[in-house]
Amino acid sequence: DRAMAQFDWFAKTHLPRFIAGDTAAYTDAEAVTMIGEAINRWASRTMAFRDNPRLHNQILGIYTLAWDTIDRSYWPARLASAEYYLTRDNNKETLKELAAAMAGNPNSVRGLTLSGLIAVGQWNFDAADRAIAALRGINPDSIEADLLEARNLLQQRRPTDAMEPVQRVLSRQPTHLEALGLRAAVFALQLREPQMKEALAAVEKLDPDNASAYLDVANQLAAMRQYPRAEAMYKVAIERAPWWTTARNGLGLLYTQSGDEDLARQTLETAKLLDPFNYRTHNYLVLLDLMDNMARKETANFIFLYDKDADPMVPEYFPDYMESVFEDITSIFKHKPPVKTIIEVFPGHDQFSVRTTGSPWIGTVGASTGRVIAMVSPANKRMGTYNWAQVLRHEFVHTVTLSATDNRIAHWMTEGLAVIEERTPLRWEWVPMLHNAVRKKELFTMDEITWAFVRPKRPIDRTLAYAQSAWICQYIAEKWGRQKLLDMMEQFRQGREQDAVFPELLGQNLDEFHKGFVAWAEKQVEGWGYDPASTAKYNQLSAKAQKLIEERKFKEAIEAWEQIVKLRPMDQLPHQRLAGLYLQADVRNVEKAIEHLTRLNATSLKDNRYAKRIARLYLDDLKDPEKAYRFAMDAIHINPYDPSAHELMYAVYLAKGDKPAAARKKEMIAKLEEWLEARRQATEVPWPPGSSAN
């Protein structure tokens, strides 16, 4: 109350003068900056922005007066501006002001701490480490560095490591509130609820109205998709600091991820009233406006939201496909989600990114947050064509395994199981990557593999983590039986960690398991043909075989490439060459061509040419429309907006004698052609306007 009285005095005494332009008497940049910070706190605590939107620029004007008019060398005013912008999630202006401040004083502890917090928020862990190192360069015992390190490690989902810097702070300052709050957050990330509650009680003993510790705990529970628990913590933070838009934004994003859009809007509308200039709040609300206008189709187990104008193929194919795989996937994991899964298809990548992370860009096309699966429309070519059916199957496995384990499944396991259930061979590009990892002994340990997803050290690490996770699940299923994977999921649901689960269920500690896994992996790659001797032979034979093709000696070329495919069966090139050769007129063998085309199609996620060629061969050469149907559908799964794929399916229906289906397909082709023509010249507009600059 005493502090608020002081803030109120600053606002009543100085704000009218600044608004009126009566600033001649203000000649001390430090004093003006302090006045600006006091008025900002008054405005936030009294929720004055709600009734006076102009106040935002008026406060910025006070900081600008300090650094631009009174003293251009006074860097703390730029730092205050940076902090002001950061509370409104305006990253572009925050970084601009912070750069100016750090140019004035590269050793500013506040500035280095702020730069580290921004880096943590952007998952830029290397930049955060640099800020931590810089702080310790100024003071080896820097408490700011320890707290920043703890936040950096928590963001990486490394709670055990995060506890070390927290304890260092508490050993020196046992009543440090931020450190006590982070201690509770560590326990929250570990899902150790009794210890978390005890840690929060220690905070409340010192500060009964504390909100920041509850926000830290809520953020970690939300990261673990513990939605009801996180919701309760966010609500405490909001109750104790009703002016704090950060807590409301966190709760709003939580509601969108759990599929509670009405509660999300209610929460975020209140946040916008409190601060109309918060970028994140604005992005969320624009997203919700978009979702309100989406078309909706509901089936027995799914709810589909999509843009009916931008995505006319979604209702034609997505519902039937997902219902066709529902029983298969849920029976594998012996679990059905208790509520319908929501599948949201966004016309633009920016909307999808805001939907899943709150930021306008993430480098993928699909994501599951539990009940909700969000994906970019296959009509949007910003990320390139992709097999939407395979993506949805992958993401629905996440939905099921997360639901079955109360969102507590190990990251590597949910990813590995999702990759396996795509039911495709190893992707071509994964083969040499895995071979090199095995040969160079670079496979991740069980302690390292989750970090490879969160904080990859090399460009290939995240991809290798996906591939190795699938291998780990395959290894467990082969050695101990698939039921053991389900038993492990149950243990994770109970909150047990993998260092306890592995010995109990598999009879091996993590180190012993890794040794066995590495030995298994070495056997997997033995016949792949990527060892030095096989590689030399491969190169020699390939040159010879290619020359035979150029000389049009197709029979001899086939013999050579058949040798090569036996030498290196996991290589794409021999299959491509043989598929083409077996379709040459004088050596034509449709069945053999289909054999290699099928292998190529199985791992073709972005190119439907193989599927279309196989379907056409079955239809025209082998007169087998049933098999042609499967591959024509594959072609549509990879690119539902390819007219030639639909025309092929039309021919299949005619060959099957299914006149009603053929008639429907003919109508669909006409609508698709009309839709494509209307959008021929269209280009994707960044969403929301101006967001790409933030």
List keywords for this structure.
3% strand; 68% helix; 694 residues; Serine Threonine Protein Phosphatase 5, Tetratricopeptide repeat; Neutral Protease, domain 2; five-stranded mixed beta sheet; disordered C terminus; mainly alpha
The span between the termini is 36 Å
* SS strand fraction: under 5%
Number of strands: 5
How many individual domains? Answer: 4
Number of helical elements:
34
Instruction: Name the overall outline.
Output: globular
Radius of gyration: 29 Å
CATH class of the largest domain: Mainly Alpha
Tell me the name of the CATH homologous superfamily of the largest domain. Answer: Tetratricopeptide repeat domain
Low-confidence stretches: 685-694
Mean pLDDT: 92
**CATH architecture of the largest domain, please?**
Alpha Horseshoe
Helicity range: 55-70%
Broad structural category? mainly alpha
Described by strand count, sense and barrel closure, the largest sheet is: 5 strands, mixed
**Oligomeric state of this protein:** single chain
Looking at CATH, which topology of the largest domain would you report?
Serine Threonine Protein Phosphatase 5, Tetratricopeptide repeat
Characterize the structure shown.
- This protein has 694 residues and is mostly helical.
- The protein has four domains: 2-243, Tetratricopeptide repeat domain (Serine Threonine Protein Phosphatase 5, Tetratricopeptide repeat); 244-292, no CATH class; 296-524, Neutral Protease Domain 2 (Neutral Protease, domain 2, Orthogonal Bundle); 532-678, Tetratricopeptide repeat domain (Serine Threonine Protein Phosphatase 5, Tetratricopeptide repeat, Alpha Horseshoe).
- Helices cover 68% and strands 3% of the residues.
- The protein has 34 helices and five strands.
- The protein has helices at 2-20, 29-45, 55-70, 75-86, 91-104, 109-121, 125-138, 143-155, 159-172, 177-189, 193-206, 212-223, 227-240, 245-257, 261-274, 279-292, 314-333, 349-357, 388-404, 411-420, 430-439, 449-454, 461-480, 482-493, 498-506, 510-524, 532-550, 554-567, 572-581, 590-602, 609-621, 625-638, 643-656, 659-678, and strands at residues 295-298, 302-306, 341-346, 366-368, 372-376.
- It has a five-stranded mixed beta sheet with strand order 1-2-3-5-4.
- Helix 1 packs across helix 2 (29-45).
- The radius of gyration is 29 Å and the shape is globular.
